[in-house]
Amino acid sequence: MNAKVIDGKALSAEVLAEVTASVSEIQAQGLATPCLAVVLVGEDPASQVYVRNKLRQCEATGIRSVEHRLAADTSEATLLELLAKMNADPAIHGILVQLPLPAQIDEQKVIAAIDPAKDVDGFHPENMGRLLAGDESVLVPCTPLGCLLMLKHTLGDSLKGKHVVVVGRSNIVGKPAALLTLQQHCTVTIVHSRTQDIEAVCRQADILIVAVGRAEMVGADWVKPGAVVLDVGINRVERDGKAKLVGDVDYAAVASIASAITPVPGGVGPMTIACLLRNTLQAYQQQR
Ligand SMILES: Nc1nc(=O)c2c([nH]1)NC[C@@H]1CN(c3ccc(C(=O)N[C@@H](CCC(=O)O)C(=O)O)cc3)C=[N+]21
């Protein structure tokens, strides 16, 4: 078998087109323009690329964006002060603080300081709790939401009842991906670094969602023939003296036995950004 490639670029373009249409409608009605504030602390090169990407996509959809670049030695108090100002500003509808933050800043404290109504990452404990409770109107984390949209696109109604195995248990990808697919009536297993016989558990998956951050860890022997594989990993590696982007899945090997697979780049990554703008629009609509 040779897997169908799930085209994250094409699907994200569809999501972005929907957002663009909604924004034009809002503007035609003479209402305020939705606005996303992005905060970047420090000069991590990968973070700079992501933030630039996010701001570029904002512009393309007509969503207004404001960017705050803070020095790497910014204090926690200064960042919290900025967030308080943005929480109180009715012209700002979404707030994203790019992670990771420098060591002197407590990430959990920062996330908890964002108004849950403006938390377009879906990382605030109130929003995590609402996701756990099955609240369908909550803002949910962008990467797992992108994964869910890809699964609905690939499988439609047959998603229901499928066995999803999520590899990785992070608060920002693994756990919410498990909850979102559970909400869609999937049977869900989470596996991680301490799981016994992890490959055998993964081989039972109809749908495998891999978010561990280890280059090409998942080989063909982890995958049941015909499974759908979503690769959340983005790892920079050197191959034959050249810098390359690879996922957590050995793409060539797994593509030969899966029924569908996401590529890296061009898979989950673009969907994450599209879902950020979708969440910004949702936050805007819920604040009106
Ligand atoms: N508060 C917060 N929210 C985030 O959503 C968040 C974050 N912090 N910190 C970093 C991670 C990472 N992330 C990505 C988004 C898009 C691509 C993406 O578009 N990737 C392209 C390739 C980009 C490249 O060439 O590096 C692709 O996969 O095709 C990747 C990674 C969001 N993150």
Architecture of the largest domain in CATH?
Answer: 3-Layer(aba) Sandwich
Low-confidence stretches: none
Look at the structure and give the CATH class of the largest domain.
Alpha Beta
The gross shape turns out to be globular
The percentage helix is 40-55%
Q: How many structural domains are formed by the residues? A: 2
Overall structural class, as computed from helix and strand content, comes to alpha/beta
Largest sheet: 6 strands, parallel
Catalytic activity: (6R)-5,10-methenyltetrahydrofolate + H2O = (6R)-10-formyltetrahydrofolate + H(+); (6R)-5,10-methylene-5,6,7,8-tetrahydrofolate + NADP(+) = (6R)-5,10-methenyltetrahydrofolate + NADPH
Domain Tetrahydrofolate dehydrogenase/cyclohydrolase NAD(P)-binding: 141-287
Domain Tetrahydrofolate dehydrogenase/cyclohydrolase catalytic: 6-121
Family: Belongs to the tetrahydrofolate dehydrogenase/cyclohydrolase family.
Entry summary:
The chain is α/β, with parallel strands linked by helices and 288 residues long.
Question: How is this structure best described in words?
Answer:
By secondary structure, the chain is α/β, with parallel strands linked by helices. The protein has two domains: 30-116, Leucine Dehydrogenase, chain A, domain 1 (Rossmann fold); 142-269, NAD(P)-binding Rossmann-like Domain (Rossmann fold), CATH 3.40.50. It is 41% helix and 17% strand. The protein contains ten helices and eleven strands. It has helices spanning 8-28, 45-61, 76-88, 107-112, 125-132, 142-155, 174-183, 198-202, 251-255, 268-287; strands at 4-5, 35-41, 64-70, 94-97, 163-167, 187-191, 207-210, 228-231, 235-239, 242-246, 260-261. The strands form three sheets. The chain has a six-stranded parallel sheet. Helix 1 (8-28) packs parallel to helix 10 and helix 6 (142-155) crosses helix 7. It is globular, with a radius of gyration of 19 Å. Bound molecules: 5,10-Methenyltetrahydrofolate. Residues 49-50, 53, 96-99, 121, 142, 234, 245, 264-266, 269-270, 272-273 line the site of 5,10-Methenyltetrahydrofolate (GUE). 5,10-Methenyltetrahydrofolate is lined by residues 49-50, 53, 96-99, 121, 142, 234, 245, 264-266, 269-270, 272-273. NADP(+) binds at residues 168-170, 234. Pathway: One-carbon metabolism; tetrahydrofolate interconversion. It holds the Pfam family THF_DHG_CYH. One of its GO terms (molecular function) is methenyltetrahydrofolate cyclohydrolase activity.
